[in-house]
């Protein structure tokens, strides 16, 4: 049961991303902003910071591939981006004290890195024609605010679970 708990939580976050977009952010909304929930990425970043780099990298690969298969036409953009983001964030977390503020800043930075990777790769391939200033104002800023609030909401219960999982891994 303990082995499937963490992937199940990340999967629930992954499912809630698309549900949230469909329920609360319809396509014909009057807002000019693009809110992109990256809840599974936030959880993967927490795993990379609190459990270990390998788990974060593996979950980044798995859920990146799942995102590519379900939502994009090109396989590899999210696969690479989510795994690389988890790895980069875990490296930075080794050198910083793991408290609430540092974790939230690293989570927001990780979501930012993911968005820049995806934007850059999609621009390179020719899928995205959005200008950088429009991307920064209309997509990145609202996305960081939404995912920052999510990270604040789940910080204490999820980190408590991650510490228990980490202790279980050390015993085995």
UniProtKB/TrEMBL annotation:
It is a multi-pass membrane protein. Pfam families: MreD (PF04093). Its main location: membrane. InterPro entries: Cell_shape_determining_MreD. It is found in: Cell membrane. It comes from the Bacteria. Keywords: Cell membrane, Cell shape, Membrane, Transmembrane, Transmembrane helix. The chain crosses the membrane at residues 39-62, 69-89, 95-119, 140-158. Belongs to the MreD family. This is Rod shape-determining protein MreD. It comes from Fictibacillus nanhaiensis.
